[in-house]
What does this fold into?
Amino acid sequence: MRRRAWVLATVALAGACTLAGRGPGRLPPEPTAARPGEAVGGRPGGVQRVGREAGPTRRFDEVRGLWVVRTTLAARETVRAMVRDADEAGFNTLVVQVRGRGDAYYASRWEPRAEQLTDEGFDPLALTIEEAHERGLAVHAWVNTHLVWGGSLLPTAPDHLVNQRPDWLAVPRALARELWDVDPFDPRWTEALQRYAREHPETVEGIYSSPSNPAVQERIYDVWMDLAERYEVDGIHFDYVRFPSDDFDYSRGALDRFRSWVAFRLSPQRLRQLDEAHRSDPFAFADALPGPWDEFRREQITRLVERIYHGVKARQPDILVSAAVFSSVEDAYGIRFQDWRRWLDEGILDVVVPMAYTPDDELFARQIREAAVSAGRRDRVWAGIGAYSNGLSGTLAKIDLARREGVGGLMLFSYDWAVSEGSPPGAVPFLEQVARLRFGGR
It folds into this structure.
């Protein structure tokens, strides 16, 4: 009975594209927020936002940004030290990871509180905003989109997406036949996905949610709107807004949705042929129609970006929407189904941040230049620099190259590396050296 109920629920979600019932387990309350174009009370969403009212989003002639990994947000003292370090080093933008692995480093209405946060009265995002805005720094909430878990152990929170809705998870092709008739609520389901991620770290970082699942799209949308409505952020930042690779998503739900999506393009005879083949081969439609299959996957990511962008702007027009993207256009488009050039063309993204983490200066410059050309306006590109893979001299060289290309700014990955491995005992701190040598000193 449970298997039949899951199938029926999946079909209903695919047809209605709404989240009618979120299934077993404790669920957050339905939000009172307005949908795009609506307003409740004096402020869109009718919710008091966290952080001082500072007017328009902070804008800088040159964005000097730091990605801040969630571990730094685990305690008040590390948050305060991070803001102080960034300010003293001449950085002006903090992109802080508040949705790391389907959990929250803020007071979320939708996601479980991160297990690392033991002080129930502590809101890392609120404190970051308070401290940073006092110093004139911008704060962007960094949201990991489809990567919802990693590590050797599964999450313990019963309301974590992985535990609460395993039927929302993406399945690699290699496991699709094995899991085809397995109830997603059977422990074997998530254990198999976790095992696959552990054994294939070169292609998948952990467990992903299914991008084509309407319920997944609704959850991610709700997370973004929650942040836009309730926090005085200057921006919200997509990460992992993509498929892990072209080996995903071959879950039963995804393949069924593709069949429905592509059916109208096929002649009745071709549709009957593929339906017949599908009885013995779950991959029949995807394998017979590789072009539309890729298009379908790409469309799921683009439509989510579009919906979120318009939802944010309807609530807070000044919030800047950005995305960390694969710097190789071919890789992003053909393997991750991340069509970020289209997002810029269609005006559904304000800023793109190519993760050009290579130590190769020539490759770095080419990737940033290609992004700038695609963007049309160079201020819509911030160069993503992998400080961890470049060291000090390489990072300084990349800053020079980014400036030479005339882009709107630069982002270093990451603050956490810079103050740990990048600043060994006895050495001048990494950020201090960057400030002195490229930002004019502080």
Summary: The CA atoms of residues 6 and 170 lie 15 Å apart. Strands lie at 63-68, 93-99, 138-144, 147-149, 207-208, 235-239, 320-326, 351-355, 382-386, 409-413. The mean pLDDT is 88.
